[in-house]
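This is your field. Pick holes in the following sequence-structure pair:
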Amino acid sequence: MMKAIVESKVPEVTLGFWLIKILATTFGETGGDTVSMTMDLGYLVGTAIFLTLLVLLVIAQMAAKKFHPALYWATIVASTTAGTTMADFATRSIGIGYPGGSLLLLACVIASLALWYRAEGSISVNTVSTPRVEAFYWLTITFSQTLGTALGDWVADSGPGYDGGALIFGAALALVALAYYLKRGSHVLLFWLAFILTRPLGATIGDYLDKPIESGGLDISRPLASLIIGGLVILLIMVLPQRAGQHPGQAAAE
């Protein structure tokens, strides 16, 4: 008797996935800053707006019966904009600084992954098909997005600047990709390392686009930069193939 196929509710990890992810995290930086800085609503109000949106989208994602590209990427964007305002609130408003914020958030990511592994025996994204696993998945993602913002700002402000920071994180991401294709290390852990690194890469690219020229940026307005990047995200979602990742139980069922 054939078993029912259990579909993963997250996309297959392809080059297209990473392109959209980097653009989405860049949008998170410019979009988050648009609300908190350009609109002058502040980090706390910005966090309340984006965190509420994130919670609603996560609930919708968990209620869905299968993978929906638009819903998934909307949730990713909400997590990265919320991560931007939360990191800025922690490092600037509360005053723990970039090093303190980065270390605190790194501990949160590690704790989330550890609890996930202890509960499920795996932290592979291909197992994201049940409410409990989805809860761990989105919690880990939110922590990683917030960590990436603090880490990107910390590196950029330490001397390399926004363009230099983007090169550093881009090079680190390339090394992770090389390790993946050369089969050096766990593919699951390499995925999460790459996922985390795309956020500071997006943060530094976003800051490079909209910061003043005297601060090392291109001085493009945040709303305009957000509109351009958001349009590219939507275009890639429509053009690139969007398939659900294969659940481990799917192969057995087939």
